[in-house]
Amino acid sequence: MSITIRDVAEAAGVSTATVSRALRGLPHVDPETRERVRQVAAELDYVVSPSASRLASGRTGTIAVITPFIDRWFFSSVLSGVSDVLQERDVDLLVFEVGDPGTNPGLPPERRLRGRVDGLIVVTLPTDAMRVADLLMLGLPTSFIGTTWEGSTSVTIDDISAGRVATQHLINLGHKRIGMISGRPRASTSQSHRAQGYREAMEGAGLAPDGSLEAYGYFSVQGGEDAMTALLSRPNPPSAVFVMSDDMAFGAIRALQRHGIRPGSDIAIASIDGHELAELLDVTTVRQPVVDMGRTAAEALLARMVDDATEPEEIISPTTLIVRGSSVPQERTAQVAGSQGRSASSGDA
Amino acid sequence: MSITIRDVAEAAGVSTATVSRALRGLPHVDPETRERVRQVAAELDYVVSPSASRLASGRTGTIAVITPFIDRWFFSSVLSGVSDVLQERDVDLLVFEVGDPGTNPGLPPERRLRGRVDGLIVVTLPTDAMRVADLLMLGLPTSFIGTTWEGSTSVTIDDISAGRVATQHLINLGHKRIGMISGRPRASTSQSHRAQGYREAMEGAGLAPDGSLEAYGYFSVQGGEDAMTALLSRPNPPSAVFVMSDDMAFGAIRALQRHGIRPGSDIAIASIDGHELAELLDVTTVRQPVVDMGRTAAEALLARMVDDATEPEEIISPTTLIVRGSSVPQERTAQVAGSQGRSASSGDA
DNA sequence: TTGAAAGCGCTAACAC
DNA sequence: GTGTTAGCGCTTTCAA
Hints:
The structure is a homodimer. A seven-stranded mixed beta sheet of chain A has the order 7-6-8-9-10-12-13, sandwiched between helices. Chain A has a six-stranded parallel beta sheet with strand order 2-1-3-4-5-11. In chain A, α1 crosses α2, α8 runs parallel beside α9 and α10 packs across α11. Chain A has three domains: 40 residues, Orthogonal Bundle (434 Repressor (Amino-terminal Domain)), CATH 1.10.260.40; 125 residues, 3-Layer(aba) Sandwich (Rossmann fold); 151 residues, 3-Layer(aba) Sandwich (Rossmann fold). Chain A contains 13 helices and 13 strands. The longest helix of chain A is centred in the C-terminal third of the chain and has 17 residues. By secondary structure, chain A is of the alpha/beta class. The termini of chain A are far apart. The radius of gyration of chain A is 25 Å and the shape is elongated. In chain A, 41% of the residues lie in helices and 18% in strands. At the A-B interface, α4, α5, β2, α11 and α12 of A face α4, α5, β2, α11 and α12 of B. The first copy, chain A, binds a DNA duplex through α2 and α4.
């Protein structure tokens, strides 16, 4: 069939062991020998057989990303960041889309992972602790993104701060009845942290969070629209709403428009994400550096795979409040429409 | 280390060969034996070693998706569809993000693919024919998405028709000066087909396509905005524009808004894609079933991998024109058409 | 229907 | 610095 290490060894007049060493850049190889082997390998257009190499070495050169979705902004951005660094380092990326926990149809990937990968990146699997524990039982180095996990490396934003910053921004604008659209009833720690930030800001301003001003948007555009519609139909609707994701904020804005309410000047919206289209839709948001978070998680994982002694760390990515038209000062809506992107940073490692 | 086929064989009192056959559902195994082996394997929680199996069989049980991007709507949707069917069939999905042709930093994946996968899905690599030819030289079954390739399976929409339908829709609305925003100077066949559809519709209506009404939007939101801005600054701007992708249409609409021009009533827009947010932004678009296209391509590929005799086929996915607020009948706007119509607008939806 | 045995192509001790 | 030699854990003839 194809060229094997033996062909290279013969052509170069050395043993297969030497070829292996030379090509992998291991020490204890004469520079001349190494060069000759390289030359010959190149001429023959030799490529190591991954299966053979994996079987013999026990390493797969592959990492898996476990993600609920592929085709949503947050997740595809993360994937792209991960892919970036893996490709640089010549590591294969295996993707497992596991769907919403609960609705999940596919088998748990745990058995499908054994012997296939050297490391794992788990993207915001909402508190489906059982499943995550199964994954960890594989004993592989693991990085989490968007969620922390005791004893594991993770890359998140400071969700409490993000919720607080967005809410405080609305408070600073003069709002007092500030609602909240969150994801789903019992979701991730990330979600409860954002809610906590919201409450902290409210209480810090002497405002009582009002349960009747909260609704679930299920992290989707449609869900956000429904949630906002629900809030608008309450006896005493909010004058501003903190929304936990840009997608839901988009839906919320559509709901406002359908009710003839102007986003920003009539009811203010602030959310979290930094979705590409938030600018287009003029949505105030706390941006999280999602692609970078993917990169960071991948780098941390590779570091741990190379050097097992590396300690797991909880990495906090910085966020930035980006003020746009969906939040304008309460009493002065007629005044200066405001510069685009007055922004302030928060959060550091 | 972990349980091997030998452990199972011994525990079941058969040879490893029988275990292998039994577990893979091959014929010529006594039903009782098979059941016993299954039982034992389950008790031992045995999982075949992929590396060993791959080395021995020469099959990898893996397919690769080669895509310019991961984190854009079209591509992540395709990936999601592909992932769906692969996961059902227990096939691993390897993702290679190769970036924009030209700007491409990563090595050509061709060498990285050898021996790693049993099949390939190539997603709209714009006419970077050299690279594609390299990929095909691997001799692997290959499916294309968004592009056709002589002698290969492909899943596309009828791009000519899509361009024609979108343009005809604008014509039907009464527009005569219809511009076009396309991707980039020499891009994919898909792009030139859409342009051809545009011209066919124009000529069919006795309208002369006007080169001064065409601009490039580079398939991005920002690019679409720039392109529309450029069109608006031409001596005699269009009253309607056919835009080749929703992302660019979003940008185009922003450009209109920044110029105080109402999308739809002042200048009409129709595009192609069916992006999730096109509904939110009220954009008329020819929807392509992107997730399904991914599924279809994966299924076609698997079919060819199983049965080499399967003929390659060019699969055309159906499209649907979805009319929204970005294109409304011309009569209502005839008085402003043709000039840089500005009209004070008050919020209607 | 089952088993014995020969690899698949490479890596990793261990000698030299 | 380099070669020899065992495997890695499975699949697949070929015989029985």
